[in-house]
C-alpha cells in the first residue's frame, strides 16, 4: 500500500515503465493476426501507390455514411511504408500510436492530478481489451487514440498548467489529424472551442490563431480534392445532417463498451461479470471525479499547478479547470450522439478517449485520498487501522479487473489465431504478397491474376496485390464475373474456390505444386496458364469500335425456371479510352421482347490491355413459364454509369449469337 500512497519520482518512473512494457507485450502478441478487408486494402494500396511514385492522395476511402474520408490516414501509412514496404510496418505504426496514447495520457494525468492518478490511468489504458485491439488493427479509426490523447493533453496543459503556445498549437494539430482519420470525432472541435470560451481569460488569441492556421494547413489537400469534385462530399455531409435523427441511449452503452470486453468475444469465461465490475468501477469513479470537481481547492494534490490566476477561469484552481475540460470531452460526444441518423458502432465514440481511463485513474486516486483523510481524522486506534483496510477495496477490485482483462486479451488473441474468419489476416496477406513477388521475380514477362471478390481494384479484397507486388503486372477480378487471360502466360492466385473462374482454372490451367496460401480452413492455390490457341481467330463473332472482340462462347441448357450459364470469350484489340464498360446478355423472343437478361461489369475495363483476352460469366434466369418457340441470344456493351451503348464496327450495337429452339 505504501507504493500506492506515497510515490517517489524514482518509483513512479519504474512503475510507469513496467506498465508500458505490459502494454507493449499485449500489443505485440498476435499483431499479425488482425483482419484485413476492403477498407484496409484500399487505404494500404493507395498509400503504397504514393510510395511507389504515384500522385499524392488528396482523399482516402469512402466512409460508411457516404462521403469520402480526408487523406491523413494515407500520409500516416505512407510514412511507415516508405521506411519498410511491408504491411507489418503499418501494424507497427498502429502499435506505436497506441503506446504513445498511453504514455501521453499518463504523463498529462500525472502532471495535473498527481503521480498516483497518472499510474492508475496508464494501467487502465494499457490493458483495456478494445485499447489493445485498436493498437493492433489496421483501420482508419484505430489511429484516433494517440491524436485524441495529444489534443486533449495539450488543451489540459494549456488551460490548467501554463498557456504555452506549443500546447495549444499541438492540440490543434492533433485535432486536425484526429478528425481526418475518423471524421466522427469532429464533435470534439466543439469541445475545444467551448473550453477556450469558458476560460477565455486564460487564452492568448494569437495562440488560437496560430493553432487554427496549422489546423487549416493540414486540411489543405482535402480542400483541394473537394474543390476538384465540386464539394460533392460536403453536400453529402449536408444531406446526412438533414436526415431525421432518432433519440436513443445507444451512445451511452457504446461508450461503456469501450472499456468492456464482450463486444470483442463473448465466449471467454467470466466476460459478462467482469464487464459489469469495470462498469461499476467507472460509474463510481465518475461520481468521485464529480465530487472532486465540486470540492474545488481541497482536491488539489501536493505539487499540483496553482490557481489559474484572477484573470483566468474566474480564479478557479487549475485542477477544477482541468476536470471541467475533461468532463466536457467525455460528455459532449454522448450528448451529440444521443440523437443520431446513422447506426452507431462503438468507434463513433472513440473520440472520447482517453477520458474513460483518466476518469478511472482520477477516481481511484480520489477514493484513496478520501480514505487517507478519514484515517488521519480518526480518533481511535481501531478506526485508524480500519480505514486503510477499507481503502484497499476499490484498488483491489480494480486490480482484479486488470488481471481479468489481461486474461481476456490473451484468450482473445489465441482464439483469433485459430478461428475461421471471412477476413484475411495480416500474416496471410503478407504470405500472399511475398509468394507473388517471388513467382514474378523468377519469370520475366509473366503476369499475376488475383481471383477474389470485387471487380475493381478499389473494391477487391486482393487490392493489396497491385501496389505491394507490381502494379504493371497484376490484374484483379471477381471470380464470379470474369477470368483475365493475359498474353502469352500468367500465374493465377485462386482465393475463390468454387467460383466460375476457379472452375475454369481447375479444368484448363496447371496447378503449381508446392505453392499455396493457407487461409483458415481453405487452401488458396496458384496456377499457371500459357496461351495455347495459336492466337485470335481471323473472324471474330463480333467486334466493337472501341477495340473489343467477341471470339467465342459456351452456354448451358435452356431449362425453364433455371439459370442458363453463359461464358463469353473476348480479345482486346486495342485499349479503349478511360471509360468504364459493362456487359449485357439477353434472351429475346421472335418479337425482340427481352425474356431474360444479365448485366454486370465483367472484367474491369480499366485493366484492359491490348493483346490480352478474358472470359466473362453470366447466368440468365429463364422464366418458369417459357412457351415453346425460337429464341435469340444477344450481347451488348455499354458505358457506365451513363448507359450509352457501344457501337459495333459493322453498324448497330447488338451482337446476335445464335437462335435457340425450345423445346
Task: Characterise this structure.
This protein is α+β, with helices and mostly antiparallel strands. It contains 22 helices and 18 strands. The chain has three domains: 2-232 and 239-418, no CATH class; 425-530; 543-662, Sandwich (Immunoglobulin-like), CATH 2.60.40. Strand 11 and strand 12 (548-555) form a beta hairpin. Helix 14 crosses helix 16. The longest helix is centred in the N-terminal third of the chain and has 27 residues, at 87-113. The N and C termini lie far apart (90 Å).
For the structure shown, list the relevant keywords:
663 residues; alpha+beta; Immunoglobulin-like; 3 domains; 5-stranded mixed β-sheet; 5-stranded antiparallel β-sheet; 22 helices; elongated; disordered N terminus
Measure the end-to-end span. Answer: 90 Å
Poorly predicted runs:
1-5, 298-313
The domain tally reads 3
Total count of helical runs of at least 4 residues:
22
Secondary-structure-based class equals: alpha+beta
Q: What's the main sheet like?
A: 5 strands, mixed
The overall average pLDDT, rounded, is: 90
Note the beta-strand portion.
Answer: 15-25%
Helix coverage percent? 40-55%
Number of strands: 18
Cα-atom radius of gyration: 31 Å
Structural topology:
Layout lengths: L1 H4 L3 H20 L6 E2 L1 H14 L20 H12 L3 H27 L1 H13 L1 H6 L9 H17 L4 H17 L5 H12 L6 H14 L1 H9 L3 H11 L3 E2 L2 H8 L13 H25 L22 H20 L1 E2 L14 H23 L3 H11 L1 H26 L5 E2 H16 L5 E6 L11 H6 L4 E5 L3 E4 L3 E6 L5 H9 L1 E10 L2 E9 L11 E2 L4 E8 L7 E10 L7 E9 L5 E7 L12 E9 L7 E12 L14 E8 L1
Amino acid at each position: 500500500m505504501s507504493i500506492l500512497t506515497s510515490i517517489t519520482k524514482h518509483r513512479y518512473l519504474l512503475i510507469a515503465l513496467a506498465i508500458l512494457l505490459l502494454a507493449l507485450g499485449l500489443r505485440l502478441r498476435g499483431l499479425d493476426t488482425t483482419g484485413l478487408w476492403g477498407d484496409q486494402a484500399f487505404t494500404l494500396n493507395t498509400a503504397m501507390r504514393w510510395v511507389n511514385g504515384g500522385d499524392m492522395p488528396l482523399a482516402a476511402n469512402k466512409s460508411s455514411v457516404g462521403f469520402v474520408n480526408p487523406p491523413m490516414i494515407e500520409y500516416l501509412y505512407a510514412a511507415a511504408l516508405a521506411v519498410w514496404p511491408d504491411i507489418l510496418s503499418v501494424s507497427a505504426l498502429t502499435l506505436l500510436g497506441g503506446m504513445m496514447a498511453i504514455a501521453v495520457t499518463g504523463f498529462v494525468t500525472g502532471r495535473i492530478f498527481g503521480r498516483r492518478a497518472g499510474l492508475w490511468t496508464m494501467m487502465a489504458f494499457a490493458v483495456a481489451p478494445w485499447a489493445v485491439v485498436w493498437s493492433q488493427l489496421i483501420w482508419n479509426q484505430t489511429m484516433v487514440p494517440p491524436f485524441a490523447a495529444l489534443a486533449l493533453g495539450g488543451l489540459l496543459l494549456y488551460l490548467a498548467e501554463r498557456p504555452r503556445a506549443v500546447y495549444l498549437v499541438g492540440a490543434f494539430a492533433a485535432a486536425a489529424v484526429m478528425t481526418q482519420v475518423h471524421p466522427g470525432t469532429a464533435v470534439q472541435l466543439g469541445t475545444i472551442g467551448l473550453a477556450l470560451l469558458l476560460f477565455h481569460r486564460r487564452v492568448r488569441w494569437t495562440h488560437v490563431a496560430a493553432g487554427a492556421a496549422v489546423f487549416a494547413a493540414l486540411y489543405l489537400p482535402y480542400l483541394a480534392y473537394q474543390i476538384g469534385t465540386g464539394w460533392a462530399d460536403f453536400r453529402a455531409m449536408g444531406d446526412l445532417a438533414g436526415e431525421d435523427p432518432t433519440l436513443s441511449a445507444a451512445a451511452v452503452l457504446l461508450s461503456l463498451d469501450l472499456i468492456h470486453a464482450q463486444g470483442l468475444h463473448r465466449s471467454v469465461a467470466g466476460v459478462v461479470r467482469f464487464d459489469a465490475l469495470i462498469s461499476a468501477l467507472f460509474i463510481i469513479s465518475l461520481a468521485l471525479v464529480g465530487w472532486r470537481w465540486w470540492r474545488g481547492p481541497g482536491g488539489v494534490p501536493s505539487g499540483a499547478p496553482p490557481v489559474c490566476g484572477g484573470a483566468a477561469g474566474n480564479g478557479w484552481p487549475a485542477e477544477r479547470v482541468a476536470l471541467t475540460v475533461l468532463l466536457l470531452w467525455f460528455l459532449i460526444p454522448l450528448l451529440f450522439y444521443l440523437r443520431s441518423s446513422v447506426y452507431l458502432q462503438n468507434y463513433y465514440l472513440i473520440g472520447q478517449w482517453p477520458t474513460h481511463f483518466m476518469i478511472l485513474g482520477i477516481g481511484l486516486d480520489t477514493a484513496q485520498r478520501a480514505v487517507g483523510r478519514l484515517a488521519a481524522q480518526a480518533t481511535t486506534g481501531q478506526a485508524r487501522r480500519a480505514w486503510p483496510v477499507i481503502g484497499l477495496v476499490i484498488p483491489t477490485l480494480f486490480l482484479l479487473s486488470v488481471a481479468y482483462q489481461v486474461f481476456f486479451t490473451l484468450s482473445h488473441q489465441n482464439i483469433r489465431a485459430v478461428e475461421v474468419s471471412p477476413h484475411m489476416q495480416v500474416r496471410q496477406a503478407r504470405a500472399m504478397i511475398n509468394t507473388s513477388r517471388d513467382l514474378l521475380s523468377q519469370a520475366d514477362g509473366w503476369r499475376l491474376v488475383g481471383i477474389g471478390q470485387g471487380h475493381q481494384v478499389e473494391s477487391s479484397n486482393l487490392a493489396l496485390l497491385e501496389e505491394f507486388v507490381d502494379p504493371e503486372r497484376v490484374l484483379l477480378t471477381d471470380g464470379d464475373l470474369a477470368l483475365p487471360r493475359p498474353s502469352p502466360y500468367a500465374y493465377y492466385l485462386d482465393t475463390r474456390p468454387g467460383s466460375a473462374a476457379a472452375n475454369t482454372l481447375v479444368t484448363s490451367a496447371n496447378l503449381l505444386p508446392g505453392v499455396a496460401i493457407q487461409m483458415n480452413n481453405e487452401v488458396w492455390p496458384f496456377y499457371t496458364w500459357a496461351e495455347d490457341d495459336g492466337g485470335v481467330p481471323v473472324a471474330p463473332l463480333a467486334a466493337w469500335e472501341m477495340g473489343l472482340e467477341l471470339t467465342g462462347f459456351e452456354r448451358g441448357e435452356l431449362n425453364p425456371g433455371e439459370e442458363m450459364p453463359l461464358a463469353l470469350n473476348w480479345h482486346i484489340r486495342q485499349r479503349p479510352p478511360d471509360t468504364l464498360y459493362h456487359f449485357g446478355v439477353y434472351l429475346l423472343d421472335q418479337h425482340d421482347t427481352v425474356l431474360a437478361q444479365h448485366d454486370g461489369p465483367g472484367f474491369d475495363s480499366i485493366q484492359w490491355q491490348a493483346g490480352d483476352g478474358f472470359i466473362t460469366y453470366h447466368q440468365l434466369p429463364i422464366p418458369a413459364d417459357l412457351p415453346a418457340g425460337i429464341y435469340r441470344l444477344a450481347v451488348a456493351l455499354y458505358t457506365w454509369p451513363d448507359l450509352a451503348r457501344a457501337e459495333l464496327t459493322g453498324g448497330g450495337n447488338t451482337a446476335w449469337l445464335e437462335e435457340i429452339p425450345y423445346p
